[in-house]
Amino acid sequence: MTKLPIKKVVEGLLELQKTGQSATLLGVGPMSKNCVQATLEVSKEYDCPVMFIASRNQVDADELGGGYVNGWNQFTFAGAVEEVAKEIGYDNLYYLCRDHGGPWQRDQERNDHLPAEIAMELGKKSYIADIEAGFDLLMIDPTKDPFEMGKVVPLDMVLDRTVELIEFCEQERLKRGLPEIGYEVGTEETNGGLTTLETYETFIVRLKAELERRNLPLPTFIVGQTGTLTRKTEQAGTFNFQNAYDLAQMAKKYGVGLKEHNGDYLDDATLLEHIPSEIAATNVAPQYGTEETRAYLNLAAVEAKLAANGLVAEPSRTREVLLKRAIESERWRKWMVGEQKNLTVAEIVQDEALSEEILDIAGHYTFNDDEVKAEIAKLYANLESRNINGRRYVVDRIKRPIRDYAECYNLLGVTTRIRELAGAGAAHV
What we know:
Layout: H1 6-18, E1 25-28, H2 33-46, E2 50-54, H3 74-87, E3 94-101, H4 107-111, H5 116-132, E4 137-140, H6 155-175, E5 182-185, H7 197-213, E6 221-223, E7 230-231, E8 234-235, H8 241-253, E9 257-260, H9 268-277, E10 281-284, H10 286-308, H11 318-329, H12 345-349, H13 352-362, H14 370-384, H15 390-408, H16 414-421
Parallel strand pairs: 1-2, 1-10, 2-3, 3-4, 4-5, 5-6, 6-9, 9-10
Antiparallel strand pairs: 7-8
Helix pairs in contact: 1-16, 2-3, 2-15, 5-6, 6-7, 7-8, 8-9, 10-13, 10-14, 10-15, 11-13, 11-14
């Protein structure tokens, strides 16, 4: 049995909403191989589909700079997910998804203020690698224009570039004889301009007309602003149920699912509101990286206790190295608030409380650093000598918040229900 295309899954979700079995899919930022395993295990246990949403900074072609997550390009990322799936006997549906693909979506491209022609060309090269590596969903996001920063990118410009990129991707896919893929359009960023119901519908209507005129597929998801906002290691926004519901109904009118971004650190009450609001999917990423960082720090604390009691001869420097590398990475800046974005590394090092906060925010950006990997390996070995399976603890720790979302999002058994709707039965995929 071939894998259900992601568009069929979303169509199934929209049908389930009519039967009182509404559910919200979860898109997980693949922050590490441990995170991939945690996600697949929850997906298997709950019989639900899952999406891995990789940004271009996280996973990209080697010629474009690669990714900070395990140094993965699209092919090694796809291979790593497949490898983990085989290791755990995975038997459900996972989808490889490009999050925020397109021009200027790598930090360096934006910081260099690359001209539009060059930025579009690099975005297209990245999409080709996505397509060839078997990605199931591509987000088309041309709204990070450095020449329009701080302003609303004109809707005409967003539409033109969105259509151009979808047309390009479809041509490249068909040229290679590859199966259909889904597309995600719009953005949660305010400079994308899709912040009101009126603008949202205008975008859908005009995009639909342009795509149909070119015989191109309609998107699978359209991103809308539900009020969520991730800053530091907390949910800094306020979920707007009415706006989310209205956007979901608007998207559904055109056969598209509403996608929510910045869904990290939401409390259970808000998560439960996603079912009646009929949001089709939520993206969560930095929260899982933070959970993994916290897991390593807990293990390092246990290791220190064992060393103090003479049970470990040479403790690792996991905490020290994670802290140093996290501060030096400067990737924490995008998550800070106000003037804290402009702090110097020297200022942070002198402030113990701020240093700890930076470690919590940015520890996961350092997992692929050679020194960090060496210290974590030593940490695992020291704990193993005292019958603690450190890696298993890390995976289980990441599973906790993923499981919270799966429970509140009514995801138990969703794969079986969608297969039945699609006439696919409960066959093995």
